[in-house]
Amino acid sequence: MTQAVVTHEAPKSFLRRYIFSTDHKVIGLQYLFLAMVAVVVGIILSLYMRLRLAWPTEKWPLLSKLFPQAMAGGTISPEFYLSLVTMHGTIMVFFVLTTAPLGGFGNYFLPIQVGAHDMAFPVLNMLSFWVTLAGFVVLMAAFFVSGGAPISGWTAYAPLSAVGEIAGPGLGMGQNLWILSIALFCIASLLGALNFITTTLNLRTKGMAMTRLPLTVWAWFTTAVLALLAFPVLLAGGILLLLDRVAGTSFFVPEGLIVSDQILPHKGGSPLLWQHLFWFFGHPEVYIAILPGMGITSHVLSTFARKPIFGYRAMVAAIFAIGVLGFLVWGHHMFVSGMSPYSAIAFSLLTLSIGVPSAIKTFNWLATLYKARIRFTVPMLFALGFVSIFVSGGLSGIILGQTSLDIPMHDTYFVVAHFHLIMGVAAIFGIFAGTYYWFPKMFGRMMNEALGKLHFWLTFVGVYAIFIPMHMMGIAGHPRRYAETAGFDFLAPLQPIHVFITIAALITAGAQLLFFFNFFWSIWKGRRAEVNPWQATTLEWTVPSPPPHDNFGPQIPTVHHGPYEYSVPGAAEDYILQTAPPTPAKS
Amino acid sequence: MAKTVATLKDIETIAVGSRPPGRPDDGGQGGGKEPSPSLPEGSYRLAILFALASISMLFLGFTSAYIVRQGLGGDWYPLDPPAILWANTAILLISSATLTRARALLQREAIRESLRWLAITGLLGLLFLLGQYGAWRELVTRGIYLHTNPHSSFFYLLTAAHGIHVLGGLLALGYVALRGWRRRLILIGAPDRLRHYGALVGATALYWHFMDGLWVYLFILLFFWR
Question: If you average pLDDT over residues A459-466, what whole number do you get?
Fold first, then answer.
């Protein structure tokens, strides 16, 4: 009976149970739904941009209903185009690619996979979500203030971002809100990261040695460490930027800067300083977005290949190596900033060396698939898609990592195509793999398999149709962030490619409606899920679907096996749960 | 001391839920907070350690900006340190000593005395913050503001950023002191509860000492590092 003390009941009131909940599963779902709202906004913004690029002179009276002020007359002005660029990037990077795989899946599944009742600090966890939500609301508010959303891009390069309204619309209150939003996001991420780290290190159940952690947990753990160390530097930069804007300091604004025919009173600051601070955060942020996807991919590949992941320890080491190297390569975003060629070479070599752990991961994924009896479920398709896109996007990274190639390619669509594939699409494929894989556990029902496969193929072909031509445009010299190419004769022949990409983007975006339909339809109407529909091995598949409030009830699991014991010779079934008794199955 | 750090063995026994039966977690006051049923005590310390790593990165970011900005020269006019900063530094250092005293008394189950020293520590922290405000006032009377020159910008920025963190430490001290006062009677002769409370105080102390060291670092960076 003493065990009963351990079990704690779910709160009864609706508010405590679903809104201000300290349950990591509810918080995980809150993060996921926030990311869903954000991704819809982000996609809509990107479609506005695509339409502007494909048909620059067209009027869109219907579309202007959403932004009556900014799209007065039904056209997208170059300034508004830049607002769209900024907001699309910021929303996607922070509130989708960071929020869904880490805040969403990480919160939901990390405690279950390590065998804990909850995160170490549930109240901090709840705070972390609400601060993230506040950050999102503040960011959205930028659309509704005088001047509209900022136009300085998600990187907010100074001095454009630092001198205020004088430099363009949206650089007044809009930019202030942007900084505030990012600062809130930083603080929320720190609270979340502390929980992830402490829970992984201290709340593992009996028998759950670090070497028995699923690779998802390793990925979330490493990501949390990256977030813990990278976000404060962005926060520092953001505070300095805000002071330059509102308090008249001169951290980033140089002396004698003339903007709109006025000499600014600032003196002696360095715009490059912002770039260093920003990218010191910005590069690890790329890995914050992608590492959870790698973890999910490893997890899903092993499950549906019915084989142990190839080279578990090498996979863990590779995750760590990528994390560490990620802090040493920020300079490769700044090759054209006038940095010394010697430091450029150092940054270049370090950047290329990330190819080594990345290749280790890729080869281990392929080796896991080698001679496997693969079950081509929807999550498996998306995991395979992740590998494909990770390789495609990664290879162009090797091109851009070399100064001699980066300098001509810098600020062209080649860069846009590269980072969208590797950071955006690959991470999104990781999120999709995770969603299809864990949906039965989260909602107790299965998603529709046929719709899921259709969604996969349309998305997979769609993203390549969008981004492969974009590489070509970049090689042809098409600069990024230009709202229109009229007046640049050499870009005129590229216009049909813009049209093609826009059509591909519209179709791919339309295909996501299949996903949303499937998702919400399945929540209520899907086939009921069993405890372990995929015949997987890790702890989340030992608890009911969906798991009860305290995950494991009074019986806390004891772990006897590694996370990926599939097709063990001599075993009764082709998978062994981590909680299965230690004795090998009778021969 | 060693007791506050959960060994791997402790973690395992606590994690599998072998909690002492019927431990009244909140002293029956039901503050609306759910106790985490299986939180090993070392978790506080671990979380604070990682939080401090994060805070270090924040100040490293500021430091790198400081060094770069100073290197740009031109309009960099170093300030003379306001005299009151010496007193503030001394106060903060003493507060670390009083906190150590409070912890030592707690180890010996001298709860009331320990709480008294905790309170003294908090008062010293408050005095430090007032002193920092005094330093700002002194600069303002000299006509030196946030935007006057980059060195003054950094002075206000770094003292404010540090001050906010000290304020957080004060809130934590207040919380543990209040918690200790409410439980002063049930802590005596209950090694489990005392250990748990000691871990909480220990984690707070770790943070407090770090803020102390951070201030010494900032003081040196601002006025003595060239």
Answer: 98
What one-letter code names the amino acid at A60? W
Instruction: Look at residues A445, A449, A442, A447 and name the one whose alpha carbon lies nearest to residue A543.
Output: A442
Say whether B72 and A280 touch across the interface (CB within 8 A).
no
Q: What is the pLDDT of residues A466-477, one digit of tens each?
A: 999 999 999 999
| B19 to A6: CB separation less than 8 angstroms, yes or no | yes
Q: Which residues of A touch B50 (CB under 8 A)?
A: 193-194, 197-198, 228
CB contacts < 8 A (A, B): 157
Distance of residue B13 Cα from the nearest chain A Cα, in angstroms: 8
| A92 and B CB contact within 8 Å | no
Question: Which letter does DSSP use for residue A565 in this model?
Answer: -
How does DSSP classify residue A307? Answer: S
Which of B54, B59, B157 minimises the CB distance to A228?
Answer: B54
> Are the CB atoms for A555 and A569 separated by under 8 Å?
no
What confidence tens digit (pLDDT) does each residue in A266-296 have?
888 999 999 999 999 999 999 999 999 999 9
The whole-angstrom distance between B214's CA and the closest CA on chain A is 16
Q: How far, in Å, CA of A98 to CA of A91, rounded? A: 10
% residues pLDDT > 70 (chain A): 98
Mean of pLDDT over chain A = 94
What domains are defined for chain B? 82-226 (1.20.120.80)
Contacts of A240 in chain B (CB under 8 A): 62, 65, 157
Residue of B7, B9, B16, B165 best to disrupt the A interface, most CBs of A under 10 A: B16
Please state, in angstroms and rounded to a whole number, the distance separating the CA atoms of residues A359 and A356: 5
Comparing alpha-carbon positions, the chain A residue that sits nearest to B72 is A268
Q: What's the predicted TM-score (pTM) here?
A: 0.92
Contact A247 B147 (CB under 8 A): yes
Contact of A535 with chain B, judged by CB distance below 8 Å, is answered with: no
Min Cα distance B124 → chain A (Å) is 28
CATH fold of A23-255+263-542 reads Cytochrome C Oxidase; Chain A (1.20.210)
Query: Cα separations (Å) of A480 from A161, A331, A393, A416?
Result: 18, 20, 18, 7
Q: Is there a contact between B191 and A281 (Cβ–Cβ < 8 Å)?
A: no
User: Which chain A residues have a beta carbon less than 8 Å from that of B72?
Assistant: 268-270
Burial degree of A120 (CB within 10 A; 0-12, 13-18, 19+)? buried
Chain A (241-270) residues lying within 8 Å, Cβ to Cβ, of chain B: 243, 247-251, 255, 267-270
| pLDDT score for A9 | 67
At which residue do the structure tokens 């305290």 appear?
A: A550
ipTM score of complex = 0.93
Q: What band does B123 get if pLDDT is binned at 50, 70 and 90?
A: very high
Please say if the pLDDT value at position A180 is more than 70: yes
Query: How many angstroms separate the CA atoms of A195 and A199, rounded?
Result: 6
Q: Are A231 and B54 inside 8 Å of each other by CB?
A: yes
Structure confidence by residue, pLDDT tens digits, A25-72: 999 999 999 999 999 999 999 999 999 999 998 899 999 999 988 888
Measured CA to CA, the distance from residue A132 to residue A135 in angstroms comes to 5
Q: Are A340 and A355 in contact (CB under 8 A)?
A: no
Give the residue among B200, B99, B102, B88 at the shortest CA–CA distance from B133. Answer: B88
Q: Measured between CA atoms, how close is A571 to chain B, in angstroms?
A: 28
Note the Cα A577 to chain centre separation in Å: 30
- DSSP alpha helices (H): ranges in chain B? 8-15, 42-71, 84-107, 111-141, 150-182, 184-187, 191-223
Q: Which amino acid type is present at position A540?
A: E
How many beta carbons lie within 10 A of that of residue A73, not counting itself? 9
Please compute the mean of the pLDDT values over residues A474-487 and round it to a whole number.
Answer: 92
Amino acid at A411: D
Q: How far from the centroid of its chain's Cα atoms is residue A529's Cα?
A: 28
Q: Which amino acid does the sequence have at A161?
A: S
